[in-house]
């Protein structure tokens, strides 16, 4: 099959492209490069454009003989979504609607959708499974839930085969050039603070969790990418046609614990200035969200292989190799 990866020059998308190519798939990247970097996908056909541009999408699908789409493109910052909800509805919901229009018009029969654990909101359970009620608490999560339901309803009407993959908290890197260079995710955010010899920020420490900080299920980006390969294979081979599944490790790690691991691996744990500082909680942040990954294991035989130290070590190596510098430089 030939897969179009929207957002394929971004952090997660480029890892998906790498994994799919390693699995022998033909890949075309479609990215507006607002946050993506063409240097991440130097040997793959790249079409620069927005998923809101239906004409360009349609031409791309037909010109490259695309038979399946992995839709990673979209806006993903919770705090920004609270400030700019209409921007998120335009990019994430209208962008998906336009994409689905063109997918159906081009006769493309397979779609893997990047969803999010944000669809669950603030679940009051130790492990979140796919039957847990979805009650998103921020516009980002709402746009992902609307996207899932749009895909399900289109599939019911047309026979589109799909997999909605609900990512938990993604970290790490497979190669230095694919490193997450943004500072909206926890790990690079802490790296940035340490590089400047500033205390890492912990957003809130009065949550109903063991140490008062948010608890998350961190999953290596290489594992997330391999989940896309497994989903694409499952669809292509007819083993799944309508899958919604979590992508996580099933292990909760608090933000404070994650910051301590980063301090240890970066060699700054003994430095007084690297002790975390508490900032006000961010709007829309739930206290605890940890995955049950049993459904994707049963459906596709997928399971995460990397642990938290793997994520932080690979990310730190990539961060320093990309010239971001050691602490204090």
Automatic annotation (TrEMBL):
It comes from the Bacteria. Pathway: Carbohydrate metabolism; galactose metabolism. Residues 267-286 are annotated as: Disordered. Pfam families: Epimerase. One of its GO terms (molecular function) is UDP-glucose 4-epimerase activity. The keyword Isomerase applies. Gene3D superfamilies: NAD(P)-binding Rossmann-like Domain, UDP-galactose 4-epimerase, domain 1. Keywords: Carbohydrate metabolism, Isomerase, NAD. NCBIfam families: galE (TIGR01179). Belongs to the NAD(P)-dependent epimerase/dehydratase family. This is UDP-glucose 4-epimerase. The lineage of its organism: Bacteria, Bacillati, Actinomycetota, Actinomycetes, Geodermatophilales.
